[in-house]
Amino acid sequence: MAKRAITINVNGTEHPVQVAALDRLIDVLRDQQNLKSVKEGCSTGDCGICAVLVDGKLVNSCLMLAAQCDGRRVTTLEGLLEDQTMKRMQGSFIANNAAQCGFCTPAMLMASWDLARHSPEPSDEEIKVTISGILCRCTGYYQIIDSVREGCERGER
Amino acid sequence: MPTLELYSPTDLNDALRFMDHDGRNAAVIASGTDLLPRMRRKQISPSVLVDISSFTEDLRYIRQSEGTIRLGALTTVTDLLESPLFYGKLSIVREASMLFGAPQVRNVATVGGNICSAASSEDLIPVFMALGANLKLVSAKGERTVPLKDFIVKKRETTIKPSEVLAEVNFSPPGGHSWTAYEKLGRRNMLILAMVNEALSMTLEDDLQTIRSARVALNRVSGKIPALAVKTNDFLEGKRVTDQTITQAQKVLASELSLTSDFRGSGEYRTEVAQVYLRRLVERCARRIGGPS
Q1: What is the DSSP track for A60-128?
Q2: ipTM, two decimals
Q3: CA of A23, closest CA in chain B: separation in Å?
């Protein structure tokens, strides 16, 4: 099938890409942009492991067609490695042993970073809602909740 | 995924022209959070997807004018949560939105998509049914308005024509001494499709005891589609809110429901839960109408 040319801003850089009609955002990010922090789990929106930010909103990249991202701004964990809030959040995840197998960690970090930006002192309820769409297969949720709380607290705005 | 075409119209009129010619084999895609998994599971096999997701100027809005609240079909669930309109009497919309999917889904999933999905697990359909919502359907030839309560005819089947696109959901907020409430049961609190969800919009007379109108809607009444519990609503009208009334209404509801079992729960359990929810909803609405708002 004919591919179409689109432009997606990925982590601050405009990338012209060729996509087939039904290529998903996750396909472009992983296969064309080599951004492997974006994991593919269920492919049906149930596990949230593929979460990225599109125009600043957390979305499941397995449920979004790449063609629908033409002209939009996509942020993955790779794009936030130098970000101070993200550095604090990562440090907090490490300090609290919040990663066991690590498969959900990039998505957890993206969701937590998004929360930290808006909410410096989130309640546990807010944290739970924030990560409610991301499945941790190891079920180490308490360490993750602790990490997010601390990662947000340390963030100055 | 199967090979099929994606049509990205230049504007809504272009989309409607396309649907007028080729709508029969087309599926409209907004966020795709429901459509894409269904296509993956081969539950639906359109030959072309018509992408309306970029028409946010035309179809993504929350407006209130002359007493009517109008939601563009591309309004996201997050938009509903961020709107100042859905507090107080209309907090039902917030309550249901908070229990809708998870943040990543709420950020993109649309009001129009939820309604057109027309399944018995959609969070917003019973809510808008309880609010007496109407749908505005547009096509290249014009537009028409249909009540949501008559829109869904079978599981995943609506009265929308192949040439039409859902453009707007609108409703008049309940006036007078009224309140709304929502209950949902799934196997977990979040990111779960409902086994039972139930919505109520209730208005009392000036005596704050007699029910002027009650609209209960559930994800399933008979068959696997959301609907108003018509007999229960008729029963409640004109009755005083008492323990006895509610107990009787629960029996009416149970007789009105014909629920089947599936992997989410048995019909018997669903019926039991629906009755418990009816009591909670009526009591909560009555309390809120009587109390400070």
Answers
A1: EGGGSBGGGGTT-EEE-GGGGTT-HHHHHHHHHHHHTT--SS-SSHHHHHHHHHHHHHH-SS--HHHHH
A2: 0.95
A3: 9
> Can you give the residue range of the structural domain that contains A113?
82-153
pLDDT band at A53 (very low <50, low <70, confident <90, very high): very high
Interchain pair A65, B29: CB under 8 A: yes
| B46 inside 8 A of chain A by CB | no
Residue A83: both structure tokens together: 């970000």
CB contact under 8 Å between A64 and B54, yes or no, is no
Same domain, A11 and A74: yes
The pLDDT value recorded for residue B191 is 84
> B170 and chain A: CB distance < 8 Å anywhere?
no
Q: What is the pTM of this model?
A: 0.95
For residue B188, the model assigns a pLDDT of: 84
What would the pLDDT profile of B41-62 be if each residue is shown by its tens digit?
999 999 999 999 999 999 999 9
Distance from CA of B236 to the nearest CA of A (A): 36
pLDDT tens digits for range A80-131: 999 999 999 999 999 999 999 999 999 999 999 999 998 989 999 999 999 9
Residue B40: which of A43, A48, A130 has the nearest Cβ?
A43
Cβ(B253)–Cβ(B274) below 8 Å: yes
Residue B293 has pLDDT above 50, yes or no: no
Query: Is A8 exposed, middle or buried, given 0-12, 13-18 or 19+ CB atoms closer than 10 A?
Result: buried
The hierarchical CATH code for the domain B56-171 is 3.30.465.10
Are residues A61 and A91 both part of a single domain? no
Q: Any idea which fold B5-51 has?
A: 3.30.43
Closest to A145 (Cα-Cα) out of A92, A107, A100: A92
Across the interface, whether the CB atoms of B105 and A68 are under 8 A apart is answered no
Residue B186 touches partner A, C-beta closer than 8 Å: no
Domain count, chain A: 2
